[in-house]
Amino acid sequence: MRMLPPSMRPLVDNLFSSYAYVGLMALITLFVVPIYVHTLGSAQWGSVALCVTIQGFLFSLDIAFGPLMLRDVARAAATANPQTIYARFLRLYATAAFSAFVIAQSVLLLFAQHRSAQGAPMSDDLFRAMCLALLQFLFQFANNAAIGYWNGLEKQRYANLRLAGFACAKHGVALLLLTQWHASATAYMLPFASISILEFILNHRRVRRDRDAITADKNAGKNVAEWRDIAAFGAAAALGFLTAQIDRGFLFIVLPTENYGLYFLISSLLLSLLSLQVPIYRAFVPRMIIATSPRRVAFSMLKISLLLLVLPSLLMAAFPDLVLRLWLHDPTLAAAAALPFRLLMLAMACTAIFSPCAALLLHYHRNRATALINAIILVAQVLVLTILTPRLGMLAGALAWFACGTIQLICAAWIWWRPSPGSN
């Protein structure tokens, strides 16, 4: 670290801390989750899995807010008061979280009443656990405002330390309750909900303490994304979310369970690799926003992506059978999934190459271009899935991702070739 130029040290520090946090979450999945499964049993763990799945769907709302907050906090930090940005996005996050909470809670109550009327009532434990899961979402989603604030200020090590500390506290208390009190879905969700409330309060108080150290600027609002910008980016982000999920949804309906299970397995590795783009994105976007040459920062981001994501993806694409044999310990499954896995890894490489270009589009407020690219990808994926799935099975899902990557690669070449765009 000492041999690096001073300007690079915060960047490397942020990348390292973000990947360390990702590694911590992976370790929890590998070592702690099996304890949950063993302690709860298959039925109770199924209830927990349902709660976590619903949370995952609700948390996907952040794709519409997170990149905008990262951009606007970074810009305000250089020209105005980032507290103004935090206050506005906190209202946005809180409003979205409360609206989703009310809707989801209403749906849950109606579903529970429907089950009772059908003579198959939902268990009290599952109902309480789902209520706690929604309560956790309410405060955890609002907490993203504080995390986005620190990420935008390039204080990602601080943000990751707080995330890691609270995550360990949640899992630690959950293990204690399950082993020493009562093994139930409610006992699992209770510490996650209660500590999320504490996390939101403490993080909010910590951000507010920065206010005294920053001088307010009457022009601070000029660089804040307006509601029209938020809505436009949100629509583009929603299309992007669909492009990442449509293969699973379609193949789940069409394929036999056994074939879908194998595709779900190998596509999970793709989605895990895609999540590794997030630390790079968060580390470079704040710098890109305030840079005199955003393309130079984007090119640096591309070089890091080539090293950390593209090269490993291409290596796995070159030897898919070997990778799957080592991972699955089943030569038959490895042989069946080798070609789809190769296409998925090639798509991953293309997506990683496109990521710096997506950051440039965010910087220049090119929401229409982002939406158009995602719409073209979505149409191409729908065509590939509907035409090829009856003949090719799960290979069609991999081809849909390959079509996505190919379009992104073409768009990346177009963005690099054309002059710097202006704002919409």
TrEMBL record:
Keywords: Cell membrane, Membrane, Transmembrane, Transmembrane helix
Protein's recorded name: Polysaccharide biosynthesis protein
Membrane topology: Multi-pass membrane protein
Chief subcellular location: membrane
Species, as recorded: Pseudolysobacter antarcticus
Keyword Cell membrane: yes
Compartments, as annotated in UniProt: Cell membrane
Ranges that cross the membrane: 20-39, 45-70, 90-114, 126-147, 159-179, 185-202, 230-254, 260-285, 297-319, 339-362, 369-388, 394-417
One GO CC term on file: plasma membrane
Domain of life, source organism: Bacteria
